Amino acid sequence: MNSIDQKLSEIKKNKKLGIMTHVVVGYPTLEKTVQIVKTMAECGADFVELQIPFSDPLADGPTIMKACEKSLNNGTKVRDCFKIAKDLSSQVSISLLFMAYYNTVFKYGIKQFIKDSKAAGISGLIVPDMSIDEEGNEKFYAYSKTFNLYNIQVISPASTEQRLRKNAKIAKGFVYCTARQGITGVKEELNPELSSYLKKVRSHFSIPLAVGFGISKKEHVKALKKHADIAVIGSAIINIINFSKPSEISKNVVQFMKNLDSK
Amino acid sequence: MKNKHQNNGHFGLYGGRYVPEMLIPALEELEKAYTVAKKDDSFQKEFTDLLNNFAGRPTPLVFAENLTKRLGGAKIYLKNEGANLTGAHKITHCIGQALVAKKIGKKRLIAETGAGQHGVATATVAAKLGFSCTVYMGEVDIQRQRQNVFLMEQLGATVVPVAFGSKTLKDAVNAAIKDWIENVKDTHYVLGSVVGPHPFPTMNRDFQSIVGREVKVQMKKREGKLPDYIIACVGGGSNAMGIFYEFIKSSTVTLIGVEAGGKGEKVGEHALRFKGGSVGIVEGYKSYFLQNKDGQLQKTYSISAGLDYPGIGPELANLHDLNRVEFVSSKDREALEAVRLLARTEGIIPALESAHAVAHAVKLAPKLSKHKIIVVNLSGRGDKDLFILAKAFNDKKFMKFLKEYTQ
Question: Which helix (H) or strand (E) holds B152?
Fold first, then answer.
């Protein structure tokens, strides 16, 4: 069984909204990344995306882009990400996923990347620029299946019925729905058409729905509860890190995550 | 020689459409509209009319008689794309794309630019065809091409400085893609080269292929035969694919792409994608990129902003692997010498990008017999490089003028 399934059934059993948080590995430092993820686990995160920093992160807004840049300037290597994943997976009971851009996977070697991810305790991969249409050349989904790693598909409000069907066929674990057509980053208001969009997505997917992009406060999380299974919080936490003194990052992340709790 | 395996935007192993799902519908829409337009007589008529009666096609094929004599070898012809409105070949694919964008109801054009040529061309076409326009340009490039920023603004475009990454062309592409993701409903992204996700490499190549077709006709008329060599500079590769495409199947024509050798061999001193790079997938397409072991793009450098780019068009990557296009390089210094030489011998000041191609012709021509013919694609004219040239040539009078002018 994949640990994502385990988490999903826990979420279902407890009738709660699952929480997936996000870090850029090596931002602000590798040591801090480990500490932040542990804090997230203690605060009730069910899943954590470990983003492997990339020089040209196409789908990311300024917040995550700058974090990637900083991490790379610190000298973070892909192998550091595997090492951190391995360290963390033996210390926390939450599901760890890699978020990466496809060039990182491709350069490492597709099969090797997937194999090593599994060995490092990773449960799923979010690779937004790996397109289903390129599977014939890449065998990314095929290898993911071989090594029991869930490929998390990312879809958007612009996705057509045809694309939703295509993604539904290949998606594993849960489907990541971007709350709006756009790049990552904090927004004040949620997309007003969110509920009809998610309804449309539900009609195509039998797996749970995660919603991210712009989720940054209690009201957002509360509003999502009715329509989604998992809330994804990315840039908002990086903002917390940005505004915190190094010694206060953990404390502030705890505070932020407590505030999100809509119970 | 064949250039097979072209389907769904794949050229052999390269190309494709590696983008987040949220861009797929826009690319599918664009591909569909372009496929229809390609076969539509009224579209072709409108395109041709704008090329001829707005942009100034056909551009002349100039016999470089003085240069030929001086070098004492092969005959050199110059395809002067600098004679286009806005001073480079770029306007051709801008017109083509804007017409497709109109068909699918877009109101706004966005573009990236390196040297500023593609930005100026997009802003020009936007003004002419009634689009609003935003151009992304790296801060480093703005510093070296300020006058093009001014021109774009005069044409009604908003120029957005890109302050992340290496602050050059690749980062401008990233910024434009992000804008497109956010505003895909009413916006068309006029990608300025034969790079990016499908259908851009195919579509831009098709639009630009008029360059090669004109050369073929002009050459037949002048010499009664095909050229033996065609030389073009290669950043992303739009001018190169434009002039090469018509001749790919003509095996007697040697096709040579010239990359930017910059100022040295070290990482960050050049833009030699084949020699220094490896296969990767960035900005939506698979090709050769200058990148490190982890797949992070590396810094590139060239005196010409248009060649200062870590990737190369996927079709050119395939033609490289098939040994159909030979790749060489010219250094900054050689390009600068070529500017001077062409100005004095032929009365044409080429863009620094195009001067890389001229520099290679200067090396090649003396080694060939007088019966051989070389065509050099002068992708643009050198007016835009005024400030860089004056500085590189250490023109004290010009520097003094600049200083006094601003006081």
Answer: helix B146-154
Of A58, A59, A65, the CB nearest to B164: A65
Burial (Cβ within 10 Å: 0-12, 13-18, ≥19) of residue A1: exposed
The pLDDT tens digits of the residues spanning B333-383 come to: 999 999 999 999 999 999 999 999 999 999 999 999 999 999 999 999 999
Q: Which segments of chain B belong to CATH 3.40.50.1100?
A: 2-51+89-204, 58-87+210-396
H-run or E-run covering A230: strand A230-233
If contacts are CB pairs under 8 Å, which of residues 45-104 in chain A contact chain B? 54-56, 58-59, 61-62, 65-66, 69, 72, 77-78, 102-104
Catalytic residue selected from A46, A60, A80, A116: A60
Quick one: pLDDT at residue A34?
A: 97
- Sheet with B108-113, strands from edge to edge, namely B158-162, B132-138, B108-113, B187-189
Tell me the pLDDT tens digit for each residue of B176-207: 999 999 999 999 999 999 999 999 999 999 99
Residue-wise pLDDT tens digits, A135-185:
999 999 999 999 999 999 999 999 999 999 999 999 999 999 999 888 888
Domain ranges of chain A: 3-259
Angle at B208 between CA B153 and CA B360, to 5 degrees: 95
SS3 B321: helix
In order of A117, B72, B74, B225, B364, the CA distances from B367 in angstroms are 55, 9, 8, 21, 6
Residue pair A46/A7 in contact (Cβ under 8 Å)? The answer is yes
CA distances from B82 to A104, B91, B342 (A): 39, 11, 13
Q: Quick one: CATH architecture of A3-259?
A: Alpha-Beta Barrel (3.20)
* Amino acid identity at B296: Q
Q: Rounded CA gap, B407 and B395, in Å?
A: 19
Confidence tier at B243 by pLDDT (50, 70, 90)? very high
Three-state DSSP class for B237?
Answer: coil
Tell me: cis bond preceding B161? Omega within 30 of 0 counts: no
CATH of domain B2-51+89-204: 3.40.50.1100
- Going by C-alpha positions, the residue among A160, A76, A107, A50 that lies closest to residue B279 is A107
If you search the block for the tokens 């192993």, which residue do you land on? B13
At residue A16's C-alpha, the angle toward residues A15 and A20, to 5°, is 140
Q: Each residue of B271-300: pLDDT tens digit?
A: 999 999 999 999 999 999 999 999 999 999
pTM above 0.90, yes or no: yes
- Assign a CATH topology to domain B58-87+210-396: Rossmann fold (3.40.50)
Which of B7, B8, B18 should be substituted to probe chain A, the one whose Cβ sees the most A Cβ atoms within 10 Å? Answer: B18
Cis preceding-peptide flag for B25 (omega within 30 of 0): no
